[in-house]
Amino acid sequence: MKLALFLYCSIIFIESVKADLIMVEVYGQPTTTKKVYSSNGKSWNECMAECYYAQSCVAAWKNGSTCYTFDYWLMGPITQTKEINESIVAFKVENKGGECPSGINPPTFGNKNATGSLYIDSDPKIAPVWVHYNIYYTKGSWKLNYKVDRICGEYEYDGFVSHADSTVTCSFVWYNENTGGFTYSEMKETCDEYSYGMAGFKYKEDVAMFEAKKYLVKIKDTRAYVRVDGIRTAACQKTPKTAYCMSEKDPTGRMTPSPFPGLFFYIRTPTMSPKLHISLLFLLLLIPNAQSSGYLEIRLKSPFLLNATVTITEDIYFPTNKRVFNVPLVPDHTRILTNVPVKFHRPGTVLINSGPVDKFGLHFATIRSDRWNTKQMIIAPDEMKLPFTGFRIDVKCDRNWHGPYCDKFCNDNHAKIINRRCTHNATLGCPLMLSGPNCDVPLLQTESTCPCVNHGYCVSEFLNPLDTVDRSICECGVGFEGEHCEEKEYDYADAIQFGMHGGPEKVFTEFFERSSVDNELRYLYH
Ligand SMILES: *[C@@H]1O[C@H](CO)[C@@H](O)[C@H](O)[C@H]1NC(C)=O
Ligand SMILES: *[C@@H]1O[C@H](CO)[C@@H](O)[C@H](O)[C@H]1NC(C)=O
Ligand SMILES: *[C@@H]1O[C@H](CO)[C@@H](O)[C@H](O)[C@H]1NC(C)=O
Ligand SMILES: *[C@@H]1O[C@H](CO)[C@@H](O)[C@H](O)[C@H]1NC(C)=O
Ligand SMILES: *[C@@H]1O[C@H](CO)[C@@H](O)[C@H](O)[C@H]1NC(C)=O
Can you tell me whether residue 396 is helix, strand or coil? Predict the structure, then answer.
């Protein structure tokens, strides 16, 4: 019997993906679909590409018209099936020889263990991972082992510890946005989901890292209570919240069994917060539930008829809250996708897929934009690639919300009623171009009267709502900050990545070579 082997070969222009990763397709069926990502209406090529570019994804599965993508922590064995079963699995593996190897049962050609490492550094600012795989074939199924080497970066890592045995521990700060902290079971669930071990003093070096004061200053809520916790004593496991079990008298702060006898310490601020459970590497912070409100607006333009999709996820590292929008484009009309809610202070990703342009042999093209800190911003490159001729993302505040993070409230309507306006700082000021106690003095924007640079403009501000004397402050355009808008704001968005998939016909190569265009939506004229 002939066994299927296809290699998914496509032209890839994304530098952050190791060029020699490939998807290898087999007839097969995963034994588990627990907690995998699934989506309908994607072509199989798009499904594989989604996996290809996702750092944690190691396999994709086509079951009918459903695309499933599997992350390394959710992968079970794959049962080999036949063509008639119409079920295809694509493994993401290294393409070691530079060409398709031969032998039965790919990717374990000739049933040898397939081993290798997957590496996608989709964002240089966050910790990339090496995913080492060992896939082996036995009795009609592929079994998979994945081991992860995490390379600590700056993003969200509070620090890392190099151990004597050359392993590295990265420490995260995680918190629940609703309650501020995690309960023990929430924490366990989270750790299990990402196949992390619960934090603890596994190595002597870890202890040194836990410089209590360093963490303590990060906790803004003075009621916060931090403890370094091990496994509770049997008695306190049953009644963890009694006064005794929450007190220093309770020996539950000790590791049982402790690798370091006698080690046991608490950090305490005035009032205890029973909600908090702190352990070494997962420090939980009581972060005031800052309210903010804003949205994403995405503009796209193309000279072609496209069935584009826009996928928006929160977080880059472990994408969550995925939303997919179909955005059909007609030639030379700007399509706007707007009012997509965003979370501020969080990273996020926008992935645009053009769908095919058959005439040029294009299977699909992608635009990927990662931002690792969401604030008011504009993301619009100067140049881009066909089939799109315009692309722009705006992160904007909802009405009545102001400030870079859209977290300052000032009711615009109420301000208007009393002949005031809300400033960027959410304070009240005179209407634009006016100043003075009665807001009847023209506020000139000339070089000699207004110190704001970089197209910032002078506005009036009453520091307190009842003040009768105002002052002039600068309101900066997006991209600038500082008292006089003299500083360029830090750019929290990464360079836009373009990908193109097609070929191998000449017509596609030619299309690709001529695909650079100016971004028509770089600047918006109202
Ligand atoms: C796979 O497809 C078959 C046939 O359409 C269906 O019965 C089955 O439920 C699907 N399995 C999953 C996990 O989606
Ligand atoms: C694949 O199809 C064959 C023939 O129809 C059937 O006997 C077998 O059970 C199917 N395998 C799976 C995993 O569905
Ligand atoms: C293949 O991997 C399995 C599972 O890790 C292991 O038991 C086996 O020894 C490996 N075989 C070879 C030839 O390395
Ligand atoms: C877009 O999708 C519709 C419906 O699925 C299809 O009829 C049409 O041919 C597609 N257009 C392009 C340009 O792919
Ligand atoms: C906004 O308020 C902060 C603190 O109240 C102040 O330091 C800053 O100067 C204000 N911004 C502007 C543009 O006035």
Answer: strand
Which residues, judged by CB distance below 6 Å to any ligand atom, belong to the binding site of ligand 5?
A: 424-425, 461, 473
What is the CATH classification number for the domain harbouring 411? 2.10.25.10
Poorest-pLDDT segment among 57-66, 126-135, 197-206, 272-281 = 272-281
Residue ranges of E strands in 108-250: 114-119, 129-138, 141-150, 157-162, 168-173, 225-227
231 and 162 within one domain:
yes
What are the tens digits of pLDDT across the range 77-116?
999 999 888 899 999 988 776 666 778 888 888 889 999 8
**Structural domain of 239:** 2-14+158-268
Confidence tier at 281 by pLDDT (50, 70, 90)? very low
Cis amide linkage into residue 77, ω under 30° from 0: no
Beta bridge partners of 459: 473
Q: In this prediction, what percent of the chain has a pLDDT beyond 70?
A: 66
pLDDT score of 209:
54
DSSP sequence for 455-495: T-EEEEEBSSTT-S--EEEEEPPTTEESTTS-EEPP--BPP
> Could you tell me the distance, in angstroms and rounded to a whole number, from the CA of residue 27 to the centre of ligand 2?
11
Q: Select from 425, 472, 486 the residue to mutate for testing ligand 5; criterion: most ligand atoms less than 8 Å from CB.
A: 425
Please indicate, yes or no, if residue 317 is contained in any of the structural domains.
Answer: yes
Q: Is 305 in the pocket of ligand 4 (CB under 6 A)?
A: yes
